[in-house]
Amino acid sequence: MLTLLLLVVLAALVFEFVNGFHDTANSIATVVATKVLTPTQAVMLAAVTNLVGALSGTAVAKTISSGLVDTSVVNITSEVLICALTSAIIWNLITWASGLPSSSSHALIGALCGAALAAGNNNPDVLIWAKTATVWTENKGLLWKVVIPMISSPIAGFALGIVIMGGLMAVISGLNSAGGVLARISRPKWINAVFGKAQLVSAGYMGFAHGSNDAQKTMGIIALAIFTANSAGTLDQLPHWAEFLRPDGGEKDIDAWVIFTCALMMALGTSVGGWRIIKTLGHKMVKLHPINGFAAETSSATILLAAAHFGMPVSTTHSISTAIMGVGFAKNPHTLKLTVIERIVWAWCLTIPVAGGIAWAMVSLLLKWH
Question: What is the mean pLDDT of residues 158-184?
Answer without folding.
Answer: 86
